[in-house]
Amino acid sequence: MTEYRVVVTDHEFEDLSIERDELSDIAEVHDAGGHLESDPSIDDQLISADAILNLRYEIEEELIRRLDGCQVIARYGIGVDNIATDVAAEQGIYVTNAPEYCKEEVATHTIALLLSLYRGITRYDTSMVAGAWDHTAGAPVHRLSTQTLGIVGFGSTGRAVAARARALGFDIVTADPFIDKETAVENGAELVEFAELLERSDAVTIHSPLTDGTRGMFDDTTFESMKDSAFLVNVARGPIVDGDALRTALKDGKIAGAGLDVFPDEPPAADDLLRRHERVVATPHVAWYSEEADPERRRTAAQNVRKALEGEKPGDNINGL
C-alpha cells in the first residue's frame, strides 16, 4: 500500500529506480523536476509531501513554514547549507544527510590534490606537452616526511585524510572546536588552535561544514598568517574561502598554490583565476564521486525517509529533533 507521498525536489540521476525500490511498498515517489533556484511550481509540489528528497534545491524558511504534514527532508549528501534546518526543527521536521557515503572518496581526492601540488604534477605535465624535458618545471618539490599538514575540521572525513597523510609521512595538526585532544591523538594528530595551525602548516586541507562561523574564514588575514610556501586544499564548501582573498594570495605569492574541488561560485567563470592559475589544481566538485558512492547516497537518503515515515528517528538526523 502506497500510503505516503515522497517528492524529489531535484536530481541528476537517469531515473529514480533506487528510491522507488526502497520506498514503493509504503510511498509513491514523485519527481518535481527542480533545479538549484527556488521555483513556485516546484514549491507547490512540495506542500503536500510527507517526505522530501533533496539534492541542491534551496529549501528556505518560507517554504518550510508552508509544508503541510512533511515529516522529513532527506538530503543526497553531507552538507545541508541549502536547507533552513533550524526552521525545520521548529516545525518538527527531521533533516537528514548521508554523512558516510563519500568519506573514502573525499579523503582520497584530498590526497590526490595534495600530491599533485607537492610533486608539481600538472606543471610537469604542461611542460612535457610543450616539448620540454625540465626537472625544474615543477620545482620546488619537498620530501613529505619533512612537512606538517594542518587539517581544518576533524570529523570522519578529516580523520580519513589524517590516516592517509600519516602513511605518507606527514606530521599532522588539526583545528576543530568540536573534538578533544584525546580524539585527535587517537587519530594521529595534535589538536591546536586555528591560528597555530596556520602558522605551523606546510599545507592546509579544509573539511568543515559551511556555517555562519566558517563562511569566509579563509580571508586576507588568514592568508597573511600562512607560510608563503604553504598549499591550500578545499574539498568542503567553496564559500568557506573568500574567493577574492584567495585570488590575491595566489597573485601576490602569499601561498604556494591551491587544490580546489569547490568554489565560491559554481561553476566558476571560464576566465576565473581560480581555475586558470598555474599553481592551482582544479576539479569540478567531484571529490564525492565514485560509481559506488552515487547509489549509496541515494539508498541512504531513501532509508532515512523510510525510517521517518515508519515512526522511527532517522539515525542521520542533524537538526536536533
UniProtKB/TrEMBL annotation:
Entries under PROSITE patterns matching the protein: D_2_HYDROXYACID_DH_2, D_2_HYDROXYACID_DH_3
Record-annotated D-isomer specific 2-hydroxyacid dehydrogenase catalytic domain positions: 26-319
UniProt keywords, alphabetically: NAD, Oxidoreductase
Domain D-isomer specific 2-hydroxyacid dehydrogenase NAD-binding intervals: 111-287
Pfam annotation, one family: 2-Hacid_dh_C
Listed GO MF terms: NAD binding; oxidoreductase activity, acting on the CH-OH group of donors, NAD or NADP as acceptor; transcription corepressor activity
Region of interest (Disordered), ranges: 291-321
Family: Belongs to the D-isomer specific 2-hydroxyacid dehydrogenase family.
PANTHER family, sorted: D-ISOMER SPECIFIC 2-HYDROXYACID DEHYDROGENASE FAMILY PROTEIN (AFU_ORTHOLOGUE AFUA_6G10090)
Stated name of the protein: Phosphoglycerate dehydrogenase or related dehydrogenase
Species whose genome carries this gene: Natranaeroarchaeum sulfidigenes
Originating gene: serA3
